[in-house]
User: What shape does this take?
Amino acid sequence: MPSSQGLGPVIPRRRFGTELRRLRRERDKNLSEVAHDLLISTSKLSRLEKGHSAAQERDVRDLLRYYGQVDTELGKRMRQWAKEGREEPWWQQTSSGVPPITEHYMQYEIAASKINGFVIHFVPTLLQTADYARALLTALHPTRTAAEIDTLVSVVLQRQEVLTREQYPASLDMIIDEAALRRQADSQAIMLDQLEQLVSAGNEPNVTLRVLPFSAGPHQAHAEGSFTYFTFRRDIDSDIVNIEGYVTDSYVEGDQVQPYWTLLEELRARALDPASTLRFIDNIAQELRREV
Assistant: This one.
């Protein structure tokens, strides 16, 4: 049976929910009718179908019985997905102190096969050095203790293993606004190390970087803000987009993701190509070397 182990709980929850929704529509039922028949709330059933909550064993039993899937191969897959959807991801198994907004993002990050995006303010998390991450997290979380910041830095470094894991490493294709490369984190020395790390990472086969230089002028995406477009290995796992916000992030999926893919294509057309990007970053690093 195909397993989603190692992908965190969000993907198996979405797979379970996708099949629930398909089974309901095949029977020409609406949410209220199924919820009424099973004596559960419509909101609960909606959350299960959207993959927003874990399906407990009783829910799984009742739903599979209702849809006639108790002894089918689909029923077995759904029970497995429900079980995996109840498991805690690695960052919740210790007191990591990761903010909920970041936890939600990480659940898609760990499961994605392709991560595309546009960043305006900071270097992409998956490519940050420990010192850059520490300086950034200290600035963004001024009330955290040094020990708490160290823990968050360790989480950042562990997140980066999605690019180097042995089985199904993710590919990363990021467009970086020049502002993120010019904005220093704590010191010139830290920024220099970070720029050198970007050049090194950009030579990896599964990492593609493009810089949107100031000379390219403003774009609609600057008003939209930083966003990440997640793609997954299996067709059942539909694409999803994270849009970064000040208080909370937002997510879109289904037909709503296409405008963001169009934005990425427009940005790629205006950005430097990967080879020119690495030379551009190296030139900024050389400027810093003369100043350090």
